Task: inverse folding
């Protein structure tokens, strides 16, 4: 049994998640909800001022203040706005 995030703050698969998705016999999804009520499948990374980070290392471990989960629609909106 293993678990982890599917995609990074740019919506790209992690190498580990790519391997797990390929190998898994069974997948169970832990649901997170966007502020609008839809299922959150995407995440944005924030800098210290709360602005969206669009580039950088794929892995940057942080707490709740660094990442926000969104549905795809609001993720795209947030990525555009910053
Ligand atoms: Zn939403």
Result:
């Amino acid at each position: 049994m293993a678990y982890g995030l599917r995609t990074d703050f740019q919506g790209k698969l992690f190498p580990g998640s790519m391997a797990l998705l390929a190998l898994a016999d069974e997948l169970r999804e832990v649901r997170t909800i966007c502020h609008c009520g839809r299922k959150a499948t995407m995440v944005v990374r924030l800098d210290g001022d709360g602005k969206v980070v669009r580039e950088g290392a794929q892995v940057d471990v942080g707490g709740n203040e660094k990442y926000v989960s969104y549905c795809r629609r609001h993720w795209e909106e947030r990525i555009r706005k910053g």
Summary: The CA atoms of residues 6 and 17 lie 5 Å apart. The helical segments are 15-23, 72-81.
